[in-house]
Prior knowledge:
Elements: H1 12-33, H2 35-45, H3 53-78, H4 80-100, H5 104-118, H6 121-130, H7 138-150, H8 158-190, H9 209-220, H10 226-231, H11 237-253, H12 259-286, H13 290-311, H14 316-329, H15 333-341, H16 349-376, H17 383-414
Amino acid sequence: MPSFPDLPARSPRFIAAFIVTALFFALGQFHRSSGSVLSSVFLEEFAVQPEQIGFVVGTLFIAQALGQIPAGVLIDRFGSRKTLTGMGLLAALGCLLVAEATNLTMLLLGRALIGFGFSAGLIGSFKLFAGWVEPDRLATLNGRYMSFGLLGGLLATTPLIMMLDRLGLRGVFMFFAVATALMAGVIAVVVRDKAPALKDMPADPAETLLEVIRGIRVLLLRRALWPLLMAAPLLYAPIQILVGLWVVPYLADIHGLSALQRSYCLVSMVGGMSLGPLAYGYLDRRCQDRWQVIRRGALLVTIAFLALVLAGHVHWLLATALATLACGASMFFVLLLTHVQQMFRSSHAGRVVSTFGVIAVTGIFITQTVSSVIMGFFPAPDMTASALGYRVLFGFMVLTSFTVYLLCLWFRRSIEPQQHCSPR
């Protein structure tokens, strides 16, 4: 491990790069979290059939999953600055296509470009930070970045509803097309891939694109990572099942809340998602055993969903509090990604995060599809049937989150040396 002499992680250059990349990530989070609000608008604007809306919303996630691997390859090969700039312009083009869409095909193409373009956000930023920050500070910085960026999900709640009322769907996406293009331009001007203190240090040998792609195969064949690769499809499920798809109809069907009241509940959940990385960053600094923090986070998600099964129907405040807890606790994956990233040399950081990312984002599409199948078995002609369906859905989430807990336990016990949690 090379020494890191006087890295200027608090320099104006790095702070500006941190802010602009976090804002880029926040724009991506807005699009990921906006499905529950936009679905009804798509139904009206494009005459989408109810059975098609899941595919329309999910197109963004499919494209984002497909974009993870090429994004990681490009970042390892050309750096974060060039990759984020280019893919940001693609996302801006996607927003423009949605704004100008006259049919379902244009809408799907636009959402696909948005998902593909923003697929580089998290990977590019993690790789960028590795060139500016000492390794032992990466988990804390990544947590702050995630917290900052996840605030973009707040735009997908009450603010989005207000923007749609004032600007309409096309006006909203024209605004985001311009904002995203401007953000890509700022990244090109502000971001630098490596701190000045490291410019004279020997770089890892440049690899051809074929060598980089072969390196992904090596990563997948590393048996030590298999438990975590198995957990990856379930990492984002709590957030996307709740915030991205089902919590809005749940609050309407079970608790009878209005659209504005439901948006306030969404604000609470997104706030939990934003505070989660900060809390885990603090715990990572305080505990020598990072995996104890990760395991307890996975277990806390399991408990929150179990409580939703048993008592979520009692009162909307209780349901909102439990859903917020589940969203915040699920952010333990920030520590998991940081740990996996640090298991490999810096030149492989992009492909490491992207490989996990493609599996995790694909898992969003899979778990959302499974959740739709589950709810399809429990049609809601009355409130009782709907309540049963939601309980079964949350029971499915209990199973998935507990599976993640067991896989993390397997990885820790079989690979990592046993440590005790104590203040650093």
